[in-house]
Structure of long-chain-fatty-acid--CoA ligase:
Amino acid sequence: MSGWDELYPIPMLPSWVPGAAAGVVSLHLLQKLLFPYFWADLRYLLKVLVYGLTVEVYRLQGRIVTVLDKFVKLAEKQPHKPFLIYEGKVHTYQDVDRRSNRIAQVFLHHGVLKKGDTVALLMGNEPDFIHVWFGLAKLGCVVAFLNFNVRSRSLLHCVRSCEPKILVVGADLLGTLEEILPNLQKDVSVWIMTKDSTFPSVHTLLDKIEAASEDPVPVNRRSANNLKSTVLYIFTSGTTGLPKAAVISHMQVLKGAAGLWAFGATAEDVVYITLPLYHSAASLLGIGGCIELGATCVLKKKFSASQFWSDCKKYNVTVIQYIGELCRYLCSQPVKEGEKNHKVRLAIGNGVRIDVWREFLDRFGAVKICEFYGATEGNICFMNHTGKIGSVGRTNFFYKLFFPFDLIKYDFQKDEPIRNKHGWCEKVKKGEAGLLISKVNAKNPFFGYAGNKRHTEKKLLSEVFKKGDLYFNTGDLMVQDHENFLYFWDRIGDTFRWKGENVATTEVSDVIVMLDFIQEANVYGVSVPDHEGKAGMASLILKQNASLDLEQMYKQVVTYLPSYACPLFLRVQEKMEMTGTFKQQKFQLVDEGFNPSTITDPLYFLDHSKKAYVLLTKEVHEMILSGKIKL
């Protein structure tokens, strides 16, 4: 061996190399110990920065590139790639582009619409929702997405608040149109997605689309001068009153469309959308996200728990969108063989409970749950890019530099932020629930609501930490833990969430007090075991010498309210408790819930199978808790 050593001496490492290697290993271990999410945070932050810089470079070059512009380019680049799959029928990028051109041509030749005019869209999930949306956008119109669950008085309010020139209604919503037509403003032109009409002074659209040209309308009709200009109105049930039309700018659409990409989706993915398109989650994150990627979307008319996984297998779905309720419905389905036999790799959405999250992963396999937080009209968004169960996202020093926010102390009795003796708000400690507020500035603007300046002003907090500052009040309570993960805690104000929708308690109580035997109605949300959100409950005071007419009550709520807003429980009281500021007392009522064993007041339950309010007995209560009665 000594001869070989002399011929081929073993090279000696420099003396500093072992020390350097030990230092690198030590730094790695230290990083893992003290900053375990460093690389995940860095990757996410770089993605956000790259996207923001790309948009900014375009702007500095004088190029305003909208999501619609991107779609038109894709229709040229990949004309034959499927964009939409609906009920088995494939609509390619070129198909959707050409049909939306036809719709644009119809309204262009009709001659009523100018660039910047508003058109309200009342349609369910179907390809023509997207064709009409894109066609009107090609004319430079602002499109208002109407919630098809909203009825009568509330729907009329929505139409009036966005001041449309035209209302377009889907063929399956003519009954809803019939309800509001007599009271609709005469200057609103109504178009229906049929070939003929029995309504007087209502235009048909389907026949005109078929006869129209597929040629594109002039590009200058759709061109945007500013990314902050309005492109959509999306309705949201805020903390009080009737739905409000949130102003959505081109910039917000671009940010929403980047969501799937930020979570790791690619052009090869197939995205399954079962959420209603009138919601920003489906329209901006879903449809917009597919355009951002150049991917394919499978659109479902309505969510079906029994068909969900078979659809995923049939269409090779790789990305699904969810709300918390959707995941719970899937977990509540009878167990079948081969439930993990699918290609879904990402589930993107919000509102899933920790126990449902865990059950979903155990039962349906290695799906990455991508929870996020963001209000339709808000200027702040969190994304859980690490997969931490229960969290809506993570923050750090750098994220707060670009998107400044705080969690502040809140007085639940007075229903307002707590201010110290100097008049300033105070931040909560880590681990404590606080009201999420987001700084409003040039980079993170708040565009407000259409039709009512007062509603916009009510969502803003001024003089929060210093003179002249301005913050957006999300109305949501959040908790930030010691690892900087954020968790949704609850909503404040007169609102609660049920069936994935926000319910404004004042809207419900306004409908109930229209009944001649009701003196006062106090509406609130109560927790139901194994259910997401809170179920609606109304505490009622009857007029003197009047009796409760349950038949009339049922008829009233189902006629004037969306199904998710109808109170599931009624409680008849002798006297309405008030707070020190003369507001209806809700806290004790919420705590007491709907248990007939502990509540002496008469209680009633909305039994959907009987289409009536029935007496809430201990037996009925037990059946609700056990899941034998479906809510």
Remarks:
- The two ends are 83 Å apart (CA to CA).
- The chain has a mean pLDDT of 89.
- Residues 38-60 form the longest helix (23 residues).
